[in-house]
Amino acid sequence: MPIKSTIDNDKKLIRTNCTGLISMNDFYDYLDNFLSKNDLTGCNEIFDTTKADWSNISYMDLMEISKRSSEIETIDSSTKFAWVVGGPGIEKLTEFYQSTKIFQESKSRVLRAFDDYEDAMNWLSH
What we know:
Blueprint: E1 3-8, E2 13-21, H1 24-34, E3 44-53, H2 59-70, E4 80-84, H3 88-102, E5 110-114, H4 117-124
Parallel strand pairs: 2-3, 3-4, 4-5
Antiparallel strand pairs: 1-2
Helix pairs in contact: 1-2, 2-3
Protein backbone atom coordinates (compact mmCIF):
# COMPACT_ATOMS: atom_id res chain seq x y z
CA MET A 1 0.00 0.00 0.00
CA PRO A 2 1.63 3.27 -1.09
CA ILE A 3 0.04 5.41 1.68
CA LYS A 4 0.35 3.91 5.15
CA SER A 5 -0.61 5.64 8.39
CA THR A 6 -0.22 4.84 12.06
CA ILE A 7 -1.42 6.70 15.13
CA ASP A 8 0.84 7.31 18.12
CA ASN A 9 -1.82 7.97 20.76
CA ASP A 10 0.72 8.96 23.42
CA LYS A 11 2.15 11.73 21.23
CA LYS A 12 -1.19 12.49 19.52
CA LEU A 13 0.62 12.08 16.20
CA ILE A 14 -0.33 10.47 12.91
CA ARG A 15 2.66 9.25 10.92
CA THR A 16 1.88 8.81 7.23
CA ASN A 17 4.47 7.46 4.81
CA CYS A 18 4.06 7.41 1.04
CA THR A 19 6.09 5.02 -1.09
CA GLY A 20 6.01 3.97 -4.72
CA LEU A 21 3.67 5.24 -7.39
CA ILE A 22 0.76 7.17 -5.81
CA SER A 23 -2.69 7.01 -7.41
CA MET A 24 -6.03 8.63 -6.67
CA ASN A 25 -7.29 5.27 -5.43
CA ASP A 26 -4.50 5.31 -2.84
CA PHE A 27 -5.71 8.72 -1.66
CA TYR A 28 -9.34 7.61 -1.57
CA ASP A 29 -8.30 4.64 0.56
CA TYR A 30 -6.33 6.94 2.90
CA LEU A 31 -9.22 9.41 3.20
CA ASP A 32 -12.09 6.93 3.37
CA ASN A 33 -10.55 4.04 5.29
CA PHE A 34 -8.08 5.76 7.57
CA LEU A 35 -8.88 9.42 8.20
CA SER A 36 -12.65 9.05 8.28
CA LYS A 37 -12.66 5.87 10.39
CA ASN A 38 -10.39 6.86 13.29
CA ASP A 39 -10.73 9.24 16.21
CA LEU A 40 -8.11 11.86 15.36
CA THR A 41 -9.09 14.48 17.92
CA GLY A 42 -6.00 16.49 18.85
CA CYS A 43 -3.71 14.57 16.49
CA ASN A 44 -1.16 16.37 14.35
CA GLU A 45 0.05 14.57 11.22
CA ILE A 46 3.39 14.22 9.49
CA PHE A 47 2.89 13.20 5.86
CA ASP A 48 6.20 12.04 4.36
CA THR A 49 6.24 12.04 0.56
CA THR A 50 10.00 11.75 0.05
CA LYS A 51 9.91 8.13 -1.17
CA ALA A 52 6.88 8.42 -3.43
CA ASP A 53 6.32 8.97 -7.14
CA TRP A 54 3.64 11.64 -7.62
CA SER A 55 3.70 11.69 -11.43
CA ASN A 56 0.12 10.32 -11.64
CA ILE A 57 -1.34 13.08 -9.42
CA SER A 58 -2.49 16.23 -11.21
CA TYR A 59 -3.57 19.62 -9.93
CA MET A 60 -7.19 18.63 -10.59
CA ASP A 61 -6.64 15.51 -8.48
CA LEU A 62 -5.38 17.68 -5.62
CA MET A 63 -8.50 19.82 -5.83
CA GLU A 64 -10.61 16.68 -5.41
CA ILE A 65 -8.45 15.45 -2.52
CA SER A 66 -8.70 18.85 -0.85
CA LYS A 67 -12.48 18.90 -1.23
CA ARG A 68 -12.94 15.37 0.12
CA SER A 69 -10.55 15.84 3.04
CA SER A 70 -12.31 19.03 4.11
CA GLU A 71 -15.55 17.05 4.45
CA ILE A 72 -14.11 14.45 6.85
CA GLU A 73 -15.64 14.90 10.29
CA THR A 74 -12.77 13.26 12.22
CA ILE A 75 -10.21 15.88 11.17
CA ASP A 76 -9.50 18.29 14.02
CA SER A 77 -9.08 21.78 12.58
CA SER A 78 -7.04 22.89 15.60
CA THR A 79 -4.20 20.53 14.60
CA LYS A 80 -1.23 20.77 12.24
CA PHE A 81 -0.40 18.87 9.06
CA ALA A 82 3.30 18.77 8.12
CA TRP A 83 3.92 17.69 4.51
CA VAL A 84 7.53 16.54 4.03
CA VAL A 85 8.26 17.08 0.34
CA GLY A 86 10.65 15.24 -1.92
CA GLY A 87 11.64 18.01 -4.29
CA PRO A 88 10.55 21.13 -6.16
CA GLY A 89 7.72 19.40 -8.05
CA ILE A 90 6.14 18.15 -4.86
CA GLU A 91 6.63 21.53 -3.23
CA LYS A 92 4.58 23.13 -6.02
CA LEU A 93 1.86 20.51 -5.55
CA THR A 94 1.87 21.25 -1.82
CA GLU A 95 1.54 25.00 -2.41
CA PHE A 96 -1.35 24.37 -4.78
CA TYR A 97 -3.03 22.02 -2.30
CA GLN A 98 -2.61 24.59 0.45
CA SER A 99 -4.20 27.30 -1.70
CA THR A 100 -7.18 25.06 -2.52
CA LYS A 101 -7.81 24.55 1.20
CA ILE A 102 -8.45 28.28 1.55
CA PHE A 103 -11.47 27.96 -0.74
CA GLN A 104 -13.02 25.03 1.16
CA GLU A 105 -16.03 25.94 3.23
CA SER A 106 -15.43 23.35 5.94
CA LYS A 107 -12.67 22.98 8.47
CA SER A 108 -9.03 22.44 7.61
CA ARG A 109 -5.83 21.82 9.54
CA VAL A 110 -2.87 24.20 9.49
CA LEU A 111 -0.67 22.95 6.63
CA ARG A 112 3.02 23.58 6.08
CA ALA A 113 5.56 21.98 3.72
CA PHE A 114 9.07 21.01 4.83
CA ASP A 115 12.18 19.74 3.08
CA ASP A 116 13.43 18.07 6.25
CA TYR A 117 11.64 15.47 8.41
CA GLU A 118 13.21 16.71 11.65
CA ASP A 119 12.17 20.32 10.93
CA ALA A 120 8.62 19.10 10.37
CA MET A 121 8.62 17.16 13.65
CA ASN A 122 9.98 20.19 15.49
CA TRP A 123 7.18 22.38 14.10
CA LEU A 124 4.56 19.82 15.06
CA SER A 125 5.83 19.61 18.64
CA HIS A 126 5.41 23.35 19.29
